[in-house]
Predict the 3D structure of the following.
Amino acid sequence: MIGEPRLYYSNAVIAMRLLHFFKKGGDTVKTLTNTTRGYWCAALGGVIWGLSGVAGQFLLSVYDASPFWLTGVRMTCAGIVFLILSLRQTRSLGIVVRHPKELITIFVYGIFGLMLNQLSYFFSISYSNAGTATVLQTLCVVMMAVLVCLQRRRLPYSREVLSVILAFIGVVLIATHGRITELVLSPRALIWGLLDAVSCVVYTLLSIKPVRKWGSVVVNAIGMLTGGIFLSLLYRPWEAMPHLDLAGWLAFFGIVLFGTVLTYVLFLQGVRDIGPLNTTLIATVEPVSSALCSALLLGTVFTFAEIVGLVLIIATVFLIVAQKKVTG
């Protein structure tokens, strides 16, 4: 786990260089379309998210950290970072603060979207394992596809259907090594895993309008602080502080800075550019990055089924891009 910060830093440098292109009015924007930017943001967000999941499991298992503590402190710290970053957008931040209706929308997003998503994910891991939790979380792809089709009153395109199927099968293969009957879940793991999938859909949909209007940094600053403070008031994490050494603190701050701040900026920018379904599908590279990180840091050997799963998940990206070209 000592090598994790270097992995986080490597991906963060690439992502920050991409984010540099996003500044409005610059000549560089003309060389990178919104659609291409959205694909890159969704993919990079998924990769770094996968790395943070490994760090989260490390804290939960090795240091016996509570999901309540990890979620509450993580969101509060990340919210403070977002708030500092949002000071560059004082006009947007000031307008949002003066409009109660806008604040309520972001409060709901922070509690029922961000907080519930992170809390349920860590509880799902604690009652099962990271692989199983990721499988259950991927159900949000199916939920999102159904919602988008209902909203637009159309049948899904063939490549959308195929992408959803491949993404789901790929994650299942990675988590079960192809032995589907061995995926045995406790009731608590199942409940928290399903809540994780539902909350993933909720925070994706709730983020669309606020992010388009105010930007992902301002929205996440308020949302993260709301969720973190709300959970901290309920749980009081200062009373259950785990004993962390240097490796533990590196993992924690890696989760906050890269696995939370950077990934949510990238993911929500992806939602803004290419829509919720495409972003959610591409972000399924998360289990791929988790698997690669486990191999590099822990010496994990991949089975044939896992390799097939990786290939299937990567294939969804190409299917989505191909569908975009066909439909325009």
Notes: The chain has one domain: 36-241+249-322. The mean pLDDT is 77.
